[in-house]
Design goal:
ten-stranded mixed sheet; alpha+beta
């Protein structure tokens, strides 16, 4: 067991809410007679099973360095009372369905913790993913008590460039429904677990329809000093840069420091000391150099570099015309329009929308995708090109007869032809107004690409690849017609910085954490591959199946046995956009053999599309000892 400045204790407790609901919490506290600040992680993650291993490693480490650390299960989740809030509940923030519970409940938890006799009155927030987004919103609801926040990969919108995301949306909704449908654990709540479970099941509503129907929310502003962290390949990288731009300068509101690294989704261990420095500064008045760090620290060209402020003064825009510095092959000389009409399976090599560190998460060589796209290539670069920020693309288009989708990928092409994805973006276009003369007029469309921090080496070419579909990341439009653009009036703009300089003082190192309680994993005898794609040539159909590495059976030290299985599938016919289908099946079984407790939750979400709507069917079945105790099915039509 490693040694820390403070010995720690752990206890489970109940946090009362004004309406009488009690939330289940686990507290790690330093042994001291002096009041200490609190670091709160407020989530739906079920602290007695799903997050137990990470909690047992990280939160005692935080407590051992002088901060009480608390994990709280949100309302209607884990061993907390009540039922999960729904999207139209006035308690949710900004009309959104808070995926990790109501932010208003979280504000009450903050106030309760700040009033404890062992608390100094200062609270810091910690959140990853959906909990990171809630932490940003929660900070604005309790500004008197919340003094700092560390947010990691905060969740974003379910639309991208006006297009509806197909990747992960229905799968995440299935996971959330299954998590909310799991019962409280009788070891922690006693015989009330069944009544609590049935009430929870009866009140459940699947979140997907509300997610997809809602407009894209604005990025929450930092209401308190905030350390924002993400990986470059995570969709939250844009949010992290937006927070840095809004709060990185002197006098521009609460202080913000941002870190973008080579990590998958989640909080890397090597960032824990940085989080502690942030909490020490704002919660304990200890100057450990938290504000001396540059506004943005980013992993570029194989090492860390810093920029202060963000955007930095040395950042410049370089413009590439699509009829000069970038050129495409095969355009007829008498036709100034380049036509983009892609097969519907363009996008199968996109990789994971939210990378979790699995081998199949990263996009492979993009040559096959490039072959399904229209590509504009530069000449071999005479010197390295250091990209830092979000490129953009301005296209001069011939108006189409109906809605269209633009998918843009920026790649680096090596001398041997290997095509490496740097960044991408999409834009959904509405059809022209009635009476529009598309033989003469043209429209301008701007496609914003995701931020990137990458160096294109000397001798490589920059490639812009355009397609009219990007499945299964984006739901295809109703028509396969594609679009046409005029290269002579279209431009790619990339943010170019001076070459990154190595900075030894910005290197992050993992701390020595406590060993977690032993968790025995029994993997399936016939484990599914992480990602499989099948091409049925006769049907002209493409199918992709994904299975997460979390599948298997886990036996916890307290006797809980947890088994999970998830399969996500996508299907599309090569020439038929309305054939697109996405489905996720998830099964979770919880057992306590010593108590004779055995429950199973099955959830399924299936999404199809017609010309104007997405058609969602959601199913839920709950079993106790193999007997069905609850079943329900929902159907939704969601405007595109």
């Amino acid at each position: 067991m490693p040694s820390y400045p403070y010995r720690t204790t752990r206890e489970d407790l109940r946090v009362p809410l004004p309406d009488g609901t009690e939330l289940f919490a686990r507290l790690w506290r330093p042994v001291t007679d002096e009041p200490v600040p609190v670091v709160l992680e407020y989530s739906t993650g079920r602290l007695t099973d799903w997050t137990a291993t990470d909690d047992a490693r990280r939160l005692p480490w935080i407590a051992g360095h002088g901060h009480a650390a608390v994990r709280v299960d949100a309302r209607g989740h884990g061993n907390s009372g009540g039922v999960a809030p729904v999207a139209d509940d006035p308690a949710t923030t900004d009309g959104r369905a808070a995926a990790d519970g109501s932010a208003a409940d979280g504000a009450e938890v903050v106030r309760w913790l700040a009033a404890r006799p062992w608390c100094s009155g200062r609270v810091g927030l910690l959140g990853t993913g959906a909990a990171g987004d809630t932490a940003l919103r929660l900070a604005a609801l309790a500004p008197g008590a919340v003094h700092a926040a560390v947010v990691v990969c905060p969740d974003g919108a379910h639309r991208l460039g006006g297009a509806v995301l197909a990747a992960d949306g229905h799968a995440r909704a299935t996971d959330r429904l299954a998590d909310a449908a799991r019962p409280p654990d009788p070891q922690y709540v006693g015989d009330d677990w069944r009544a609590m479970w049935l009430a929870r099941l009866d009140a459940l509503e699947p979140p997907l329809a509300d997610w997809l129907a809602a407009p894209s929310p604005d990025v929450p502003a930092a209401a308190v000093p905030t350390l924002a962290v993400a990986g470059w390949s995570d969709p939250s990288a844009a949010t992290v840069l937006a927070l840095a731009a809004a709060g990185g300068g002197a006098g521009a509101g609460p202080a913000v420091r941002a870190v973008l690294g080579p990590w998958p989704h989640g909080l890397p261990d090597e960032l824990l000391p940085e989080a502690l420095r942030w909490y020490d500064h704002w919660l304990r008045d200890i100057d450990a150099g938290a504000l001396a760090a540059p506004t943005l620290r980013s992993w570029r060209a194989g090492h860390w570099s810093g920029d202060d402020p963000w955007p930095p003064p040395g950042l410049r825009e370089v413009h590439y015309g699509l009829d000069g510095p970038l050129r495409t092959a095969g355009t007829a000389s008498e036709d100034r329009w380049v036509h983009v009409h892609s097969p519907q399976h363009t996008g199968l090599d996109a990789g994971a929308h939210v990378p979790l560190g699995r081998p199949a998460d990263q996009p492979p060589d993009q040559r096959e995708e490039d072959g399904r796209s229209v590509c504009f290539d530069s000449r071999p670069l005479p010197e390295p090109l250091d990209l830092l920020g979000a490129p953009s693309l301005a296209l001069h288009l011939r108006p189409a007869a109906g809605p269209a989708l633009i998918a843009a990928r920026l790649c680096a092409v090596a001398p041997d032809g290997t095509s490496t994805l740097l960044t991408r973006g999409v834009r959904a276009l509405a059809g022209p107004a009635d009476g529009h003369d598309d033989s003469v007029a043209a429209d301008a469309a701007v496609v914003e690409l995701a931020p990137t921090g990458a160096t294109v080496p000397t001798g490589h070419r920059l490639r812009l690849a355009l397609s009219s579909t990007y499945w299964p990341w984006i739901w295809p439009g109703p028509e396969p017609a594609g679009f046409a653009l005029d290269p002579s009036r279209s431009t790619l703009t990339v943010p170019v910085h001076h070459p990154a300089r190595h900075a030894d003082d910005l290197t992050f190192r993992s701390p020595t954490l406590p060993l977690p309680p032993p968790l025995h994993l029994t993997e399936p005898l016939t484990a599914r591959p992480e990602r499989v794609t099948v091409h049925d040539i006769g049907r002209r159909e493409w199918r992709t199946e994904l299975s997460p590495a979390t599948d298997g059976t886990r036996t916890h030290p307290d006797g809980l046995v947890r088994a999970e299985q998830t399969v996500t599938a996508y299907r599309v016919l090569t020439a038929t956009p309305l054939s697109a289908l996405a489905r996720t099946d998830r099964t979770v079984r919880l057992e306590r053999p010593a108590l004779g407790w055995d429950v199973t939750v099955h959830t399924r979400t299936e999404l199809r599309c017609d010309p104007t709507h997405l058609l969602a069917r959601t199913q839920l079945r709950a079993e106790e000892a193999g007997n069905v105790v609850f079943t329900k099915e929902w159907h939704h039509r969601i405007p595109r």
